[in-house]
UniProtKB/TrEMBL annotation:
Residue ranges of the region described as Disordered: 71-93
Lineage of source species: Bacteria, Pseudomonadati, Bacteroidota, Bacteroidia, Bacteroidales
Comp. bias regions, Polar residues: 83-93
Biased composition (Basic and acidic residues): 71-82
Protein name per Swiss-Prot or TrEMBL: Uncharacterized protein
Amino acid sequence: MDAVTVLAYLIDTIIFPDMAMMLPNIVAGTVCFWQIWSMLENESSCNDARWADVAQRIMVDKTERHFDIDLHELKHPERNKNNDTTATSPGVE
C-alpha cells in the first residue's frame, strides 16, 4: 500500500503539477477505509452482539469469501443433517 501512495504522489507532482487533486490524500483515505472495513468484518464474524448481526447483513464474512465454504453448514449442523440424506459420516456404515 505504501507503493500505491508513493505512486499517487509521483503522479500528483510530476504528471499533474498544476492541478490541486491531492491524489495521495485520496489514496490514503481509501486505504484507511478499506482497513477499517476489514477490521469490522473480522470483529463482526467472531462476535455475537446485536451490532455484529446487523453488520453481517451488510458485510460478507471473510471465511466464506476466502475459503469458499458456507458457514451456515458449520454453525447449524443439525439443520444440514436433516436436509442432507445422502451424506454419511466417515467410519459409519
